[in-house]
Amino acid sequence: MRILIVEDAQDMAEAVAIRLTRAGMACDLAGSCGEAHDFLAVQSYDVVVLDINLPDGMGTEVLQALRARADRTPVLMLTALFSVDDRVSALDLGADDYLTKPFDPRELEARVRALHRRESGQKAEELRLGALRFNPAAMSATRDGARLDLTRRELTLLALLMRNAGKTMSKERLYQGLFSFDDADVGLNAIELYIARLRKKLTGTGVVIETQRGLGYCLRATP
Amino acid sequence: MRILIVEDAQDMAEAVAIRLTRAGMACDLAGSCGEAHDFLAVQSYDVVVLDINLPDGMGTEVLQALRARADRTPVLMLTALFSVDDRVSALDLGADDYLTKPFDPRELEARVRALHRRESGQKAEELRLGALRFNPAAMSATRDGARLDLTRRELTLLALLMRNAGKTMSKERLYQGLFSFDDADVGLNAIELYIARLRKKLTGTGVVIETQRGLGYCLRATP
DNA sequence: TCTTCGACGATCAGGATGCGCATGGGATCT
DNA sequence: AGATCCCATGCGCATCCTGATCGTCGAAGA
């Protein structure tokens, strides 16, 4: 799950980011409307957490711009204001939820999760390919009922590939799914590393990861 | 198991909450339709106990709103009214069960449990894994007929794991089931603590709790 | 068709990180 | 008074990622 946090107060933003990251979400931080626009132009998110007061304008501008291009990404507004008008106008502009400061980070986490749940509508069915089964609910991959021993990164990578089985996934695309911008210093060959590990653990499953030189990787069943 | 109790009569609400809490359920209390909506926007519940008479409207509104967004959470209606019409309309709106006041708290507890069992697709009342047997109604776990001496939290945690045996349960997921919003300041490592205690008490039962670093915990029978 | 070169990908080992476990102790409930 | 519950802290180790080296593919030229 990919989250954009738009908040100018550094400490607040980081606290939130740490919390959500622990919860398994990949977070990007934007400190202003401008930055937010940049991020949103480049990357799509599952949920946007949006502060109203920003140094270069109101957060509602970001929301408006988003909705103006028919982007339905769930938005959670943060506000120090107590005014009912502000809340109402935020909701009218297409915000999906709001939270007034100060708030319990636990509550924020829960709301973000709720928004995502509402949006994705509980699409948790088992994926199959070859002798391999991937169960999103159990967070596990099995072969003939035997559970594959995968680490967190390996599992999310496999999930990405399974959901796009047969399609060529560029290294950048996989990178986006695995890391957040905070992991900015992570090299691209980290992907190659996890591909290699996955390949080893997938031997005998009737599933292989093909390398498409210069293009990316592709998961497919062996004939 | 996480329960939302929507009831404006303070004493009644608390009595129910205490009863269910003792039975190992994590309860949140809402005193009005508005509060109920807030809770439901943020947290998903296993069962909602819903009074019909609320200060700011009818409980059925909450039910309607819930079903309107395709939320199938089991709802148990409480009503002082004796009218058959009310019961019928409640059931038509998607309530799963109802109880007329005054009621025996034991009956409420049993019905809540039944609703949850039905929803989660559990066949038998008793759950078995390895040499371990768990009885949700009696809140007791036995091994070869000998009762394991578990505390309330330990039992609740075991219940969660037994119901999802074989699935990896994230620490956050377990947290949601164990604690209510009133326990807001409880840290995440409380989970680790109870896992450790449970593990000790489960030695010899043919059941182990596996740690999946960064992912969560998984209960399974030893081969 | 064969060769050569360049670039991309695979692999390995080692160090940093942070997760999960254990212990002790204080607070709260029975 | 006793049990239960939960926090704080420190340690050990699985995981993660880097950096460098080796392998390999493919295009261009003869």
Automatic annotation (TrEMBL), chains A, B:
Pfam families: Response_reg, Trans_reg_C. One of its GO terms (biological process) is regulation of DNA-templated transcription. SUPFAM superfamilies: CheY-like. SMART domains: REC (SM00448), Trans_reg_C (SM00862). The keyword Transcription regulation applies. Gene3D superfamilies: 3.40.50.2300, 6.10.250.690, Winged helix-like DNA-binding domain superfamily/Winged helix DNA-binding domain (1.10.10.10). The modification 4-aspartylphosphate is found at D51. The keyword DNA-binding applies. GO terms for cellular component: cytosol; protein-DNA complex. GO terms for molecular function: phosphorelay response regulator activity; transcription cis-regulatory region binding. InterPro entries: CheY-like_superfamily (IPR011006), OmpR/PhoB-type_DNA-bd (IPR001867), Sig_transdc_resp-reg_receiver (IPR001789), WalR-like (IPR039420), WH-like_DNA-bd_sf (IPR036388). Keywords: DNA-binding, Phosphoprotein, Transcription, Transcription regulation. Residues 124-221 bind DNA. CDD domains: trans_reg_C. Residues 2-116 form the Response regulatory domain. Residues 124-221 form the OmpR/PhoB-type domain. This is Transcriptional regulatory protein tctD. It comes from Aquimixticola soesokkakensis.
